[in-house]
Write a structure and sequence with these properties.
By secondary structure, the chain is of the alpha+beta class. The chain contains 2 helices and 6 strands; from the N terminus they run ααββββββ. A hairpin with a 6-residue loop joins β2 and β3. The N and C termini lie far apart (about 35 Å).
């Protein structure tokens, strides 16, 4: 009954385990590496400066999809509204991206 939800959470847990930027050791390190991105109402978006690659995380609490500008470059989608994991689901370019309603989007710089 909840197979999709369980698979999604397993994917998020696996992603956290292999991504040091999601396990920063102190508040000072978080303040140093995290920068909030401009976002519309109901959306929280931030960039985590990684030692090797940057990450962008977006949470959309709105009941409608939103468009949000992400930094330039090529990005791998690691989590979206339906799936999450350690492998790229698809690639996107910097600039505007659409984030599904009531969902998260996790991107890793290529």
């Amino acid at each position: 009954r909840y197979r999709k939800v369980v698979a999604y959470y397993r994917g998020l847990i696996a992603l956290r385990k292999v991504t040091p930027e999601f396990r920063l050791p102190s508040a000072a390190e978080i303040r140093k590496r995290l920068a909030f991105l401009p976002a519309p109402a109901g959306v929280v978006a931030f960039l985590i400066a990684g030692a090797k690659r940057n990450l962008v995380v977006v949470y959309n609490a709105n009941r409608t999809p939103v468009s949000l500008a992400i930094p330039e470059g090529r990005w791998s989608v690691l989590a979206d509204a339906d799936r999450a994991g350690t492998k790229s689901l698809r690639k996107v370019k910097g600039g505007p991206v659409e984030v599904d309603r009531i969902s998260a989007l996790v991107l890793r710089a290529d």
